[in-house]
Structures are given as structure tokens and as C-alpha cells.
């Protein structure tokens, strides 16, 4: 590690942004506390805001999930926490190195940066990437600095197409002329990297679909052209980049968002995350949640309403039923009668429907009839 | 009798015209196949070996009476009466008990040659121990097994007991169901008086050689020498030597010479008995073997010295660990609760004519005049009724009255448990381990019989092979006479077993057949390394030793109340891992002893204890008692280990933390590390107190487990390593 350090110092000083300086100061504060604790012969510890359901609060006024005040103490001299504490310090030092060098790396990159065998033991600092990922999230909440500020990014996931032109690291990207693959939404979509402008956006709304395959259907049918919208997908549970971009598009360009998701507990949950934020990332809800997002489909009544054949039904399993009941009890769904009937209907149906089920009617049924009809009738759940 | 009659009919049918009992010969020439022909057809005077116990061959047939057409395959033919009551009466006769057992020898534990060997030794040793203890002599027993041919062995068992009177010798060894123990209620090993004579009978049957007995009552008196065969037909001994009178061997040197001339072995002793039986047998080692039996006998009888010479010429001694004889068990009267209706009737008729109350008081334990009167009142009988005038129905009423009346449980001072201290001593002497504990339960009662449960447990964490130093190994290798390394390991280290030896040899990379004497220093180092690294106790399950009145039970473990109770106990709460419905895992040796005036065995061969709820409950409580102690010990050990583990973990991570922190804020890494180490030491100070210089937990003063616990350093355990005794003629011995 010493070797790497000299390498880094040899390099020319990178220019730090004010944001980086703030993050560095926080990192150093964390390290200073360890030194002072050791000086005083006390156990060093860190208090990490807990990222659990019990520490998450729904704010009915802001209509988003907010993190509570409770924290978990992580001590160095506690048998079950010693390793996690050591890892927390490792991740901090890794981030410091990234900031110093003005570089960003993927989560996996940081994992490899920090992974090594502990001196005098047959043990690795990290064995799996997910061990590292949770510690990174801990450091985020601990320093109150988001991942982007720590110079970390995740794999690109999700795509966008539509009548909009944006600037990505200085490149102008016209999302109307992006081909069949669409614009891959990057992991970091902060204003430093992507600039949006109202002038360059002709779209009237955003249609967010669950997966790439459905998105492909809409793109091939040129749905976005016909209805003048932006078409996005999040490859299942949308990653932070997609959610942040949707948030920015919604707030900066005043575009309403409609979601077309599967009719199953998982689809409901995706919608819930988009709208209110997730438990794990409650500290970022401010920057990501879109309380005005609308749920267009699929609905539990669609099986009868669209006359679907029996073959497209997928039976619910115990897990699904449990999850559905859980979702029905979420405070932001609890008071909404429409949602309660929706979930109840799915449970009484005892089957779920994927968006692809509509293809059984006609290949383009979803793009030519289903979605336009819903939009026309303003038939959605809020 | 009806059944027999019908059978006879069938027999005659087969034989055609030959009706009824024909005198003499034809029996041998009769059709030999098919069951019925075996039915004692010939009349008196002919060979009678074929006679079977009446009633063993009940074959129900539909036809009743005579003259009824018998449905048969070859059409309906009206048959003549095939045998008359008179003709059949001629073949109906007594069956000697010895004939019965000669045919049903599996009932006594002689089902196969392997078990026959063990049962013979067992019966002889048990008898010797009973005799010595009754006479108040500290028992010393010699067991010698010698192979004379394929599947033929001579077994010699000698004791230093009181000896047997001349006229009794033939009866004891040559007559089934002859003994002193059957009619009394008293704790002893033998119960029925079948064992040793049955062994002799088996020997005679399989080899034709008689049983040889030498018995000496005192130094000055002559020793008696007998060669005996049991006459199965009449259940009487037949003396072969000295023209049916036995031979007297004079005392002193002259006698010793005479003994040598007869070609029989005799360890010079002032008094004692030696029985020699040649029999068809098979010698094996391992589970259910003679080795195991003797080892377990030594555990349960710490006052006994055993000398054992096996067919391979290896000798092993089990010296006594105490000079204290167990107290003499008292004989008791039966308790009313344990007496069945028939027995009650028999007692009444046997008893001298007296009043009913008097009879009850003098024939049963715990029946006071008050209780006796209450019994009479409940049964609606006069307390002054004459015992001779009591009818069947009245006996029944009396029996019912006994069941409903509350009678205090029998006195339990007739039971002699081994005792916690002696159990610990015995177990420690024989089983390697580091932690020993024992529990003797207070006596209990089942069906009117008092009994007592004792449980002892040995826990051996570290295997002996892991603690051997290079010097000691070198010494052991030099003095061994084993031909291969594998043999050397098995012979030298107790409790290692063939499986463990194989694993060590494999991991050392040496050839299985390498001679230990020819090991090069480098190879020796490899062997040592393997011995240290192979974890023998991995996957080991609990070893259970069952005892009834100090006799090891080696077979039918699944059917035994002891095993069932062990399986039904939750050992997980005592720090052992256990999967559902199986024995717990770990290097644990558990012994359970049931002492009773009448142990309820499931069969005559005395292999398993019957599951009476009272007995099972006591066993469970005993197991829990030792389990708790074990749990305390293991938890304590665990705690100490955790402390040292803790420090290790902290120290491991401190360097990483110090480096990371110094990287972030530029603090002095070395200084920070030192400071953190200091904090870590402060936090794990407890670990220092209980660790010795080798990093192993040392004796722990805080842990008070009571006095029925023994904790030893396994490295110092003498039972672990079998050293060659150069002075003795006996040499290295294999592991039982």
C-alpha cells in the first residue's frame, strides 16, 4: 500500500472541486476521531445511521420516505463488528485515494482496490463484492456524502429514447436519433456530467417501462414518436442513475411520468420505490423520489378488461401473497382506496400478469391500444 | 395335546401303513425330510435326541375329530384314524432342559461362533467375580484364549476365588439351571444358573472335548481336577476322568508337577478355580469383542485385576484402581407389587400353614402387620384365615387388594452401586480423556424391584497423537515390535483405532507397509507432522457402554432402554452437536450402569434392558446430571478459547485499521497501531489469566463442578499410550 501511496504523490496535483473538498474534509474527520480515541485509550467507534425499515419514516407532507435519526454503533473492539469496522476504514481510505487522484471507479473496481490478504492471517479483507457494496453504502450515510461524491459508480443499466437532446460530459446526445439500443443511462447523472435544458426537449411526458424487452417493443413501434414522449426502462428495479435522471427530467423539465409495470408485487414495489424512495437508500429520497409518478398498468382487472387468455396467468406463490399484503400496508398505499382494491383484486385473482401477456392479444396491442387507451381515458393509479 | 394328536395323524399318513409306535430302529430310517417326521415317533429306549419341546410346533389344522375327510391335494379320501391316544401316549415324554437349550442355544447367546466365544468368557468371568465378591476376596482373573485350529479355540479362565467343593464341581459345570442365585432376590451378575454349563455344553457339542475344571479350596487341601461332559438327555454331568470320580491333585510342588503333566494351565494360587473349554469359535476385534468386554468389565469393576492373553500372544493387564471390595449386597424378600398372581398362589401353597397375616408379613418385604391387615380387609378375607384354606378366587381378591393398597416401596439398601469416585477411577484408568464426571442416582423401584442407575462420562478433546513429542515418538518407534506403521499406531495409541491410523498414514504420505523400525529421520518428521495435523475426533460419535450389575452389555443396543434414553436426551444443550434421532457427536465415552436385584432383560441372553418407564426416567435424570457438568466444562473452555480468539481477531485487524486511517489523515501509522494494540490488550485482559505459555487453557480455579468430576491433562494420561513392558513376557497389545 505504501508503494501505491508514493505513486499517487508523484502525480501532478489534481484540481479539487468544492464538492470534493467537502467530502475530503468529512473523510479526514472520520480518521481523526479514530486517532483521538486511540490516544485516550478508548474504543474507537463510528455511529452509522441505520438503514432499516424501523429507521425509515414516511413524510405525508413531502410524500417521500425519509431516514430517521437512529444509528448503529460500530465498534472496533467488538468481536462481531471488528471486521466491519476495519472494512469501513478501508473503504474510506480507498475513497480518499480516488478523490486525491480525481478518478472514479466502479464498485467492483473499489472492491479490487481494497481486496488483499490480511497480514499474518489466511483471511482476505473482502471475499465477495457485496460485502464491499454494503460497506460503501454505510460510508455514504456515515459521511452524508452520496456515492457520486465518493467518486464511485455502478454499472450502466437502463436506457432512454425520445424527443430530447442532452449534454453528457460535453457531448450533445440526441435521444431521438440513437438507434435501436437507446441511450444507456449512466450511473452518475449529476448536473456536472449531464445537463438538461427545456429548450431541447420536445417530449410531453415520460413513459417508464419495467424491462428492456418491453421497452424494445415500444421503441420498435416508435411509440415515443407518435405520442411525443420519452421512453425509459430500468431493467427491473431501476438503479440510482435511472431514478436520479427521471427525478431530474420530472423536476427540471416538468414532465409527468407514467409507469407500465408488471401486475405483481414486484411491479408494485418498483412503482413504490420510484414514487417514494427505498428503505435502503432513504437518505437519497430527496434527490430521487418522484411522488407524482403515475401507475398506468398492468392492472389486476386487465385480465377481464382485455379479454386475455387463461394461458398467460402465472399463479401467485406464498411469497408473492405475503409481499402483496406487506405492500398493501405501506403508509403511502394504506390510505388510497384505489390501491387497496387493486391489491385485493390481485390476491383474489390469485395470479399475476406480466406486460408481455398483452402480446398474446397482438404483438403491438400494448403500444397501439393498451397504453394509448389508458392515457386517453386518464385511467391510472396514483 | 390336541395339536400333537393332529400332527401325529399327518405323520402316519405320510408313512402309509406303518402305524403307531414300532419298537426300536425305524426312527432312524424314517423319512427325514419334512417337519412331522421329527416328532418323537419312536417309543422309549430309542434315540431320543429328536424329541422337541411340546408346543413348539403348533400347526393349526382345520379338521377336528376323527374320520373327517382331510382336504388334500390328491383328492378327498376318507382316512382311517392314524394314531390312537394310546399309541401317541407312548411317544409323549419329558423334555430335558439341557436338550431344549442344546437345540435353542441362540437363546443363551451362542448363535454364532463369534458370540459363542464372547458368551463363554463372559459367563466364566461373571461367575468368577460373583464368587470372589461373595467370599470377600479381591478378584484377580486370568483369561487366556488360544487357537487350536481353524475356528477352534481353547478358553481358559481362572480366578483366585474361594474354590468349589468337590461334590459341587460336576453339578455347577455339568448341569443346567443349577445355581445359588436363582431363588434369592439379591444383586448379582448371574441370575439363572445356565451360563457356564451351557458354555460347556456348547463346547462339547462343537468339538467333543470335555470341560476341564481345576478347583482349589485352600493351600493345604488338594486341588480337584475334573473333565466333565453334560449329558443332555438327563441334564446331569458325566465325569470322564478318574473313572467317573475326578482326580485329586496334591497340594504343593508335587501338585504343580501333576498339573503340568496333565497339560493344563494353572496360575499358582492358594485357592481358586480354573475352567478350560474348547469350542468352535471365531476371534474378532472391535465392537462386540472379547477385548471390549474385558475393557468394559475393568471400568465397571475397578476392584478387579484382569490378565488377558489373546490368541495372537499379546497380553494386556488391567490393574485394579481400588482395593476396596464393593459392599456385600443384601438379600431381600420380594415386594408385593412385583409378585404376579401365579407366584402368589405358589407362595401360598409352599408356605407352612399359618394365618394369612403372618404369611404376608414373613414372605414379603415392607408388609407390616398394619399393611397385612389392611390387605386382608380390602380382599374381604379374615386376617386369621389359614393359608391352606385359601381358594383361587380368594387369591385373586388378595392379588387385587395388593395392587390397590398403598405399600411403601422396597428398601433399597440391597443395591450396591459402584459409586461416583470408583466410576471416575475406573473410567480414568481405561478410557483416555481430559474430563470425567459421574453421577449415582438415588435408588428407584420398578414393579416392586429396587434398582439404581449410575452414569459416568469421559470427554477427551485432544487426541493423544497430537501431543506426542519427537523424542517420545522416537522412543516408541524403537521399542515397538509392530511390523507396519499402521500396526504401530493402532497398538501404541489407545482410542486411535484402525480408521484413525489409516488417515494418519495416508496424510503422512508414507507407505502403509513401511516398517516403523526402518524410518529415516525425515520420514519420522513426516509421520509426526501427520499425527499432529490429522483430527481424529472429527466425525466421531459418542461411545456408549452399557452395564447391568457390573456386566457389560454388548449387543442389541438399539433395543435397549439405555440407548433409547440416550437418543431421547437433548445433548445440544450440553455443548455437544447432535442430529435428530442419533447419538451426539464428539469424543465422548458414556457409561450407564443399572444395578438391581432383578435386572429386567429383554431376553435370556441378557443383552438389553427392558424399557420400564421408571427405569428410563432414572436414566434420563442421570444423563442430565453428567450432561450438565459436561456443559459447564465445555462452556468454560469455550469462553477461554473465545477470549484468546478475540484478541487474535482484534490484533489481526488493527494493522489494517491503522494503515487506512493514516492514509486518510496522515497520522503516524506505527504510533497509532501501538496505541490500538494497547487498547486491545486492555479489552481482552481476561484471556491472559487463563492461558499458559503454550497458549492452552490451564486449570481453572473459578469453575467448581463438585467432587464427582475429574479433570486431567490428556498429555500425561497413562492409558493413552501403551508402552512395551520389557520385563513382562506379555508384549504390546492392541487397542480394544
- Specify the overall morphology of chain A: globular
Number of helices of chain B: 22
User: Helical percent range of chain B?
Assistant: 25-40%
The greatest interface between two protein chains, and residues involved on each side, is:
A-B, 34 and 27 residues
Shape of chain B: globular
- Give the beta-strand count of chain B: 16
Please state how the strands of the largest beta sheet of chain A are arranged side by side.
Answer: 10-7-13-12-14-15
The low-confidence parts of chain A are: 1-9
DSSP, total strands of chain A: 17
Mean pLDDT of chain A: 87
**Assembly annotation:** heterodimer
Task: Record the SSE blueprint.
The complex is a heterodimer of chains A (382) and B (736).
Chain A: H1 2-10, H2 18-39, E1 45-49, E2 56-59, E3 64-67, E4 71-75, H3 82-101, E5 105-106, H4 107-114, H5 129-143, E6 152-153, E7 159-162, E8 165-168, E9 171-174, E10 183-184, E11 194-195, E12 205-209, H6 212-220, H7 223-227, E13 229-233, H8 240-253, E14 257-260, H9 265-276, H10 285-288, E15 294-297, H11 302-305, E16 314-315, H12 318-328, H13 331-334, H14 337-349, E17 351-352, H15 365-377
Parallel strand pairs in A: 5-6, 12-13, 12-14, 14-15
Antiparallel strand pairs in A: 1-4, 2-3, 7-10, 7-13, 8-9, 8-11, 16-17
Chain B: H1 2-15, H2 26-29, H3 85-91, H4 97-103, H5 113-135, E1 140-149, E2 152-159, H6 169-174, H7 195-207, E3 211-216, E4 223-231, E5 236-239, E6 247-249, H8 253-262, E7 272-280, H9 290-300, E8 305-309, E9 315-318, H10 341-350, H11 356-363, H12 369-378, H13 392-404, H14 420-430, E10 435-440, E11 444-446, E12 449-459, H15 470-479, H16 485-492, H17 497-508, H18 521-533, E13 543-548, E14 551-553, H19 561-568, E15 588-596, H20 613-665, H21 669-683, H22 685-689, E16 709-711
Parallel strand pairs in B: 1-8, 13-15
Antiparallel strand pairs in B: 1-2, 2-7, 3-4, 3-7, 4-5, 4-6, 8-9, 10-12, 10-16, 11-12, 12-15, 13-14
Helix pairs in contact in B: 5-7, 9-14, 11-12, 16-17, 17-18, 19-20, 20-21
Amino acid at each position: 500500500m505504501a508503494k501505491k501511496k508514493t505513486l499517487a504523490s508523484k502525480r501532478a496535483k489534481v484540481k479539487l472541486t468544492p464538492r470534493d473538498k467537502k467530502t475530503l474534509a468529512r473523510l479526514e474527520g472520520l480518521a481523526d476521531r479514530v486517532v483521538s480515541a486511540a490516544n485516550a485509550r478508548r474504543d474507537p467507534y463510528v455511529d452509522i445511521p441505520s438503514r432499516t425499515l424501523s429507521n425509515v419514516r414516511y413524510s405525508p407532507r413531502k410524500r417521500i420516505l425519509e431516514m430517521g435519526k437512529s444509528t448503529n454503533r460500530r465498534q472496533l473492539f467488538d468481536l462481531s463488528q471488528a471486521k466491519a469496522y476495519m472494512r469501513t476504514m478501508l473503504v474510506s481510505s480507498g475513497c480518499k485515494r480516488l478523490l486525491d487522484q480525481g478518478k472514479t471507479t466502479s464498485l467492483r473496481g473499489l472492491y479490487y482496490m481494497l481486496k488483499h490478504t490480511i497480514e499474518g492471517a489466511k483471511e482476505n479483507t473482502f471475499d465477495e463484492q457485496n460485502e464491499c457494496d454494503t460497506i460503501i453504502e454505510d460510508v455514504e450515510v456515515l459521511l452524508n456524502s452520496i456515492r457520486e461524491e465518493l467518486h464511485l459508480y455502478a454499472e450502466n443499466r437502463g436506457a432512454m429514447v425520445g424527443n430530447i437532446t442532452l449534454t453528457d460530459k460535453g457531448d450533445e446526445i440526441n435521444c431521438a436519433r440513437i438507434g435501436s439500443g437507446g441511450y444507456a443511462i449512466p450511473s452518475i447523472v449529476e448536473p456536472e456530467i449531464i445537463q438538461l435544458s427545456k429548450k431541447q426537449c420536445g417530449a410531453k411526458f415520460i413513459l417508464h417501462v419495467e424491462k428492456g424487452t418491453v421497452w424494445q417493443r415500444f421503441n420498435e413501434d416508435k411509440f415515443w414518436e407518435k405520442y411525443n414522449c420519452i421512453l425509459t426502462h430500468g431493467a427491473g428495479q431501476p438503479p440510482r442513475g435511472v431514478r436520479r435522471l427521471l427525478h431530474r427530467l420530472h423536476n427540471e423539465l416538468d414532465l409527468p411520468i407514467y409507469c407500465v409495470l408488471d401486475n405483481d408485487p414486484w411491479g408494485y414495489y418498483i412503482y413504490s420505490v420510484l414514487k417514494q424512495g427505498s428503505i435502503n437508500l432513504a437518505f437519497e429520497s430527496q434527490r430521487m423520489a418522484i411522488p407524482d409518478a403515475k401507475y398506468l398498468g398492468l392492472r389486476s382487472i386487465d385480465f377481464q378488461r382485455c379479454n386475455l387468455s387463461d394461458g398467460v396467468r402465472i399463479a401467485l406463490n406464498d411469497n408473492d401473497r405475503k409481499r402483496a399484503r406487506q405492500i398493501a400496508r405501506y403508509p403511502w398505499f394504506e390510505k388510497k382506496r384505489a390501491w387497496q382494491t387493486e391489491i385485493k383484486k390481485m390476491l383474489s385473482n390469485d395470479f399475476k400478469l406480466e406486460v408481455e401477456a398483452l402480446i398474446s392479444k397482438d404483438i403491438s396491442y400494448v403500444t397501439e391500444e393498451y397504453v394509448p387507451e389508458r392515457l386517453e381515458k386518464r385511467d391510472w393509479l396514483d | 395335546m390336541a395339536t400333537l394328536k393332529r400332527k401325529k395323524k399327518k405323520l402316519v399318513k405320510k408313512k402309509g401303513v406303518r402305524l403307531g409306535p414300532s419298537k426300536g430302529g425305524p426312527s432312524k430310517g424314517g423319512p427325514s425330510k419334512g417337519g412331522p417326521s421329527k416328532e418323537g415317533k419312536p417309543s422309549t429306549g430309542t434315540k431320543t435326541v429328536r424329541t422337541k419341546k411340546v408346543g413348539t410346533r403348533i400347526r393349526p389344522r382345520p379338521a377336528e375329530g376323527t374320520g373327517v375327510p382331510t382336504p388334500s391335494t390328491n383328492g378327498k379320501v376318507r382316512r382311517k384314524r392314524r394314531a390312537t391316544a394310546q399309541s401317541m401316549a407312548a411317544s409323549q415324554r419329558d423334555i430335558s432342559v439341557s436338550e431344549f437349550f442344546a437345540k435353542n442355544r441362540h437363546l443363551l447367546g451362542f448363535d454364532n461362533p463369534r458370540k459363542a466365544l464372547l458368551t463363554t468368557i463372559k459367563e466364566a468371568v461373571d461367575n468368577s467375580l460373583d464368587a470372589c465378591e461373595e467370599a470377600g476376596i479381591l478378584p484377580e482373573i486370568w483369561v487366556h484364549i488360544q487357537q487350536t485350529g481353524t475356528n477352534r479355540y481353547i478358553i481358559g479362565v481362572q480366578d483366585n476365588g474361594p474354590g468349589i467343593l468337590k461334590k459341587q464341581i460336576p453339578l455347577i459345570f455339568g448341569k443346567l439351571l443349577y445355581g445359588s442365585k436363582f431363588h434369592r432376590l439379591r444383586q448379582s451378575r448371574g441370575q439363572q444358573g445356565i451360563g457356564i454349563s451351557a458354555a460347556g455344553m456348547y463346547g462339547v457339542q462343537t468339538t467333543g472335548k470335555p470341560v476341564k475344571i481345576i478347583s482349589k479350596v485352600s493351600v493345604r487341601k488338594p486341588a480337584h481336577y475334573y473333565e466333565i461332559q453334560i449329558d443332555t438327555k438327563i441334564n446331569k454331568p458325566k465325569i470322564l476322568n478318574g473313572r467317573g470320580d475326578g482326580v485329586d491333585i496334591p497340594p504343593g510342588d508335587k501338585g504343580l508337577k501333576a498339573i503340568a503333566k496333565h497339560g493344563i494351565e494353572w496360575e499358582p494360587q492358594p485357592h481358586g478355580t480354573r475352567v478350560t473349554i474348547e469350542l468352535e469359535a471365531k476371534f474378532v476385534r472391535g465392537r462386540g469383542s472379547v477385548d471390549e468386554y474385558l475393557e468394559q468389565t475393568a471400568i465397571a469393576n475397578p476392584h478387579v485385576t484382569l490378565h488377558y492373553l489373546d490368541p495372537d500372544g499379546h497380553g494386556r493387564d488391567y490393574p485394579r484402581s481400588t482395593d476396596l471390595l464393593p459392599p456385600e449386597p443384601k438379600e431381600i424378600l420380594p415386594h408385593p407389587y412385583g409378585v404376579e398372581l401365579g407366584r402368589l398362589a405358589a407362595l401360598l401353597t409352599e408356605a407352612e400353614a399359618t394365618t394369612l397375616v403372618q404369611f404376608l408379613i414373613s414372605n414379603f418385604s415392607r408388609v407390616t402387620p398394619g399393611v397385612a391387615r389392611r390387605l386382608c380387609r380390602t380382599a374381604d378375607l379374615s386376617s386369621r384365615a389359614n393359608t391352606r384354606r385359601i381358594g383361587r378366587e380368594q387369591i385373586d381378591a388378595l392379588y387385587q387388594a395388593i395392587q390397590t393398597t398403598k405399600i411403601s416401596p422396597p428398601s433399597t439398601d440391597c443395591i450396591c452401586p459402584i459409586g461416583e469416585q470408583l466410576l471416575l477411577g475406573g473410567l480414568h484408568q481405561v478410557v483416555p480423556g481430559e474430563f470425567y464426571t459421574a453421577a449415582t442416582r438415588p435408588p428407584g423401584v420398578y414393579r416392586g424391584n429396587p434398582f439404581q442407575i449410575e452414569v459416568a462420562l469421559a470427554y477427551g478433546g485432544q487426541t493423544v497423537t497430537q501431543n506426542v513429542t519427537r523424542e517420545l515418538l522416537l522412543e516408541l518407534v524403537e521399542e515397538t515390535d509392530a511390523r507396519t506403521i499402521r500396526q504401530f499406531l493402532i497398538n501404541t495409541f489407545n482410542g486411535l483405532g484402525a480408521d484413525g491410523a489409516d488417515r494418519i498414514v495416508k496424510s503422512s504420505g508414507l507407505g502403509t507397509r513401511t516398517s516403523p523400525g526402518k524410518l529415516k529421520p525425515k520420514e519420522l518428521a513426516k509421520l509426526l507432522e501427520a499425527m499432529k495435523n490429522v483430527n481424529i475426533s472429527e466425525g466421531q460419535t459418542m461411545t456408549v457402554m452399557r452395564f447391568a450389575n457390573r456386566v457389560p452389555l454388548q449387543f442389541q443396543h438399539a433395543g435397549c432402554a439405555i440407548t433409547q434414553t440416550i437418543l431421547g436426551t437433548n445433548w445440544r444443550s450440553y455443548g455437544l452437536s447432535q442430529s435428530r434421532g442419533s447419538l451426539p457427536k464428539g469424543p465422548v465415552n458414556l457409561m450407564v450402569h443399572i444395578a438391581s436385584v432383578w435386572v429386567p432383560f429383554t431376553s435370556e441372553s441378557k443383552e438389553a434392558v427392558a424399557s420400564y418407564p421408571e427405569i428410563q426416567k432414572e436414566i434420563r435424570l442421570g444423563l442430565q446430571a453428567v450432561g450438565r457438568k459436561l456443559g459447564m466444562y465445555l462452556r468454560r473452555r469455550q469462553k477461554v478459547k473465545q477470549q484468546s480468539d478475540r484478541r487474535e481477531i482484534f490484533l489481526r485487524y488493527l494493522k489494517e485499521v491503522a494503515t487506512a486511517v493514516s492514509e486518510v489523515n496522515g497520522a503516524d501509522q506505527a504510533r497509532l497501531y501501538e496505541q490500538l494494540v494497547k487498547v486491545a490488550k486492555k479489552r481482552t485482559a481476561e484471556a491472559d489469566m487463563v492461558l499458559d505459555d503454550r497458549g492452552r487453557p490451564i486449570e481453572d480455579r473459578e469453575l467448581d463442578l463438585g467432587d464427582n468430576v475429574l479433570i486431567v491433562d490428556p498429555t500425561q494420561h497413562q492409558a493413552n499410550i501403551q508402552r512395551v513392558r520389557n520385563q513382562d513376557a506379555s508384549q504390546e497389545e492392541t487397542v480394544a
